[in-house]
Specification:
With about 375 residues, the chain is of the alpha/beta class. It has helices at about 110-115, 125-130, 155, 160-170, 185-195, 210-215, 225-235, 255-265, 280-295, 300-305, 325-345; strands at about 1-5, 40, 60, 70, 80-85, 85, 115-120, 140-145, 175-180, 200-205, 240-245, 270-275. It has one domain: pyruvate-formate lyase- activating enzyme (Alpha-Beta Horseshoe). Strand 11 (about 240-245), helix 8 and strand 12 form a beta-alpha-beta unit. Helix 7 packs parallel to helix 8 (about 255-265) and helix 8 runs parallel beside helix 11. It is globular, with a radius of gyration of 22 Å. It starts with a strand and ends in a 27-residue tail after the last helix.
């Protein structure tokens, strides 16, 4: 049974959902979104109904967006335009910075984010329409800037592949961000595009410890599968960047050098990193997860993180939110820089070509009147 009350009365730390109901998921709770007028809380009414509640199952809804390209002007982000074939992400990464965006849809940033997913079946058609506009100017578009374009439901829906097909036909430059080995399925598209300097892929590797990865990213590819994806993409001539993102101080920061070494051995050309970020709902979700999975390290992790944000959980300032500041943040930056230099990982990214773009239709050529 569920009770309703004003959101202002809701406790700061919601009750943890039963482990059997959330098996295989990252979040431990499902607190109502911050924009909701009411909050919902489960309680035992004496009739033992809680024991009959179903496990959280993945549901996929159709997204009816009228546009497909998103734009940003953040100096912290290396791209201006992106495409997200899906909203929500079944990978269930507990640290995911996209979790709070699910609240805009009336859902929770917790378990809802992992189980109530939105697919954009008309993404390819919308993109082609954008390309056809008279004033369209090509620039690199990143696929997966918010949620993973290769999360498990992509196997069935194949929206990401349909977007790639449009971009390949148009010779449009693209980047991809994923932590899924499913990206190798599309080497047949990405390889020829990379040969024209039109494509690159970034793969996120947070840890080489399979057990930590399983706890932190329950439905994402294992570290070994991601490294294998790096190898296969590289062998196909596709430039690969490995993102050590996020680095969790006190939990995964000791793996910076080993991850970079493994990535370089697999063929990665570039590398980058982002520190753990705990804005909005993520700060509570991450604490719940940390206390359950790594109780012996929980205090240390939070203490180190706060030391890089002036004693707070998070600093939203540009230039600080992804890197932090202070001695520990400086140490991480120095270690990363030195490891990249030692391994010969590139400091500069070669720009993708824009001059090969072909407007959909008849190649951008005006039709004859006769």
């Amino acid at each position: 049974m569920a009770a309703e009350r004003d959101i202002s009365d809701f406790p700061a730390m919601p009750d943890i959902v039963d482990s059997e109901r959330r098996r295989g998921r990252g979040a431990r709770s499902n607190k109502s979104g911050r924009f909701e007028a009411q909050a919902h809380e489960e309680f035992d009414d004496g009739w033992e109904t809680l024991g009959e509640l179903e496990a959280f199952k993945t549901e996929v809804f159709e997204d009816t967006s009228k546009t497909i390209i998103s734009h940003n002007d953040s100096p912290d982000v290396s791209f201006d335009s992106s495409i997200n074939p899906y909203k929500g992400c079944e990978h269930g990464c507990i640290y995911c910075y996209a979790r709070p965006t699910h609240c805009y849809l009336g859902h929770s940033a917790g378990l809802d984010f992992e189980t109530k997913l939105y697919a954009k079946p008309n993404a390819a058609a919308l993109l082609e329409r954008e390309f056809k506009k008279p004033g369209y100017k090509p620039d690199t578009i990143v696929i997966g800037g918010n949620t993973d374009p290769y999360q498990p439901i992509e196997r069935e829906h194949r929206i990401t592949r349909s977007v790639l097909e449009v971009m390949a036909r148009a010779n449009h430059p693209l980047g991809m961000i994923t932590k899924s080995a499913l990206v190798t399925r599309d080497i047949d598209i990405l390889g020829p595009m990379a040969a024209k300097n039109l494509a690159r892929v970034a793969i996120s590797i947070t840890t080489l410890d399979r057990h930590v990865a399983r706890a932190m990213e329950p439905r994402a590819a294992t570290p070994s599968k991601r490294l294998e994806a790096v190898r296969l993409l590289s062998e196909a001539g596709i430039p690969v960047t490995v993102m050590v993102a996020p680095i969790v101080p006190g939990l995964t920061d000791h793996e910076i050098e080993p991850i970079l070494e493994a990535a370089r051995e697999a063929g990665a050309r570039e590398a980058g990193y982002v520190l753990l970020r705990l804005p909005l709902e993520i700060k509570d979700l991450f604490r719940e997860w940390l206390r359950e999975e790594f109780p012996d390290r929980a205090d240390k992790v939070i203490s180190l993180l706060r030391s890089m944000h002036g004693g707070r959980d998070y600093t939203a300032d540009f230039g600080v939110r992804q890197r932090g500041r202070g001695p520990y943040a400086t140490q991480i930056a120095m270690r990363f820089r030195l490891a990249k230099k030692r391994l010969g990982l590139s400091e500069e990214r070669i720009p993708l070509r824009k001059d090969l773009f072909i407007k959909p239709g008849n190649g951008g050529q005006q039709l004859s009147l006769l």
